[in-house]
Amino acid sequence: MLLMKKVILLMKIQINAYKPSLNQFLILLKCIVILSDYMQPSKPFFEDEFGGSYILLEPGTFTFGDQNGSGHPNEQPCIDVTLSEPVFLGARPVTQVQWASRMGSNPSKFQDGWSAGLRPVESISFQEVEEFLKILNSEPSSYLGLTGVWRLPSEVEWEYAAKAGTTTRWSFGDKDAELDAHGWHAGNSGATTREVGSKKANQWGFYDMHGMVHEMTTDHWSKDHSHHHRGQRPCVHANSEYRVAKGGSWFTESDSSRSSSRRRFNISEGKDGIGIRLVWEPTEMNE
Length: 287
Hints:
Number of helices: 5
CATH topology of the largest domain: paralog of FGE (formylglycine-generating enzyme)
Number of strands: 12
Mean pLDDT: 88
Radius of gyration: 19 Å
Largest sheet: 6 strands, antiparallel
Number of domains: 2
CATH superfamily of the largest domain: paralog of FGE (formylglycine-generating enzyme)
CATH class of the largest domain: Alpha Beta
C-alpha cells in the first residue's frame, strides 16, 4: 500500500507542476490500477487486447475437495492432487464484450446499463464455448516470449486457483458473513450479475471465484472424487452429457460459493448463472 500511495503522490505532483496531457494522465492512472490489482504476492501475468489479465498458476500440490466437512458428499473424498504444468488463468471471468467481439452476438440475459459489457457473459452452452475457443485459437497467440493456446480450466486447476493456498471454506476464511466483500451471491447481487472484478481478489489475485456466475470446467461430471486420477488434466468419461461447474452464482446462497463446491451442467444448455474463465496454456518458447 505504501508503494501505491507514493505513485498517487507522484501523479498529483506531475498534474500540478507539469500539466500533463490527457494521454500521460491515463498512463499514470493505468499504473495505479495495475498496482491495486497486484498488491497480492506478485506473480507473472500478461494482458490481452481487452485488458483482461492472466496470472501464472505455478505447479504445486494441494488438497482437492472439502477439507472442512461442511460440504456436499460430491466434494469427497479429499485427495492430494499435483499440478505439474504451468498455465495462466484469467484474473476475471470472460466479459460480454469479449464474447461478442469474437462471436458477433451476445446471448447474455443481463445486458441493461452502459457497463453491461463488463459483466460476465452467460446463457452460453458448452458447445458454444467450444466454438468460441476455436475462433480464439484460429490465430497464433504469443505472450511473455511464449506461444500458447486458449482453453477452459480443469476442475483441479480452477479449485487450486480458488483456494489460493488456503484450507478454509472460502479463500478469505470460514465465516460467510465476510462473503459480501469478496463475491456476488443471492444475498447481495440484487438478482443480477455485476461488473467483473468489483469485489476483492483472493490471495493470488483472482476475482469473482466466490459467486457471480458458476464457471465451466472441462471435467466430465462424476458423483464424487473417489475415482479421480490425481492429476492436472480433466477427468473424462465416455459419452457424458454433463460437465462440472464451479464457484456459485448471483442467485445461489453462500454455501454454493465455497472453494470446493461443485455442480453439474448439461453441455447443450445455456444458463444465466453459468459463465466461463479462460486458461492460456504455453506450448512452446518463441525463437
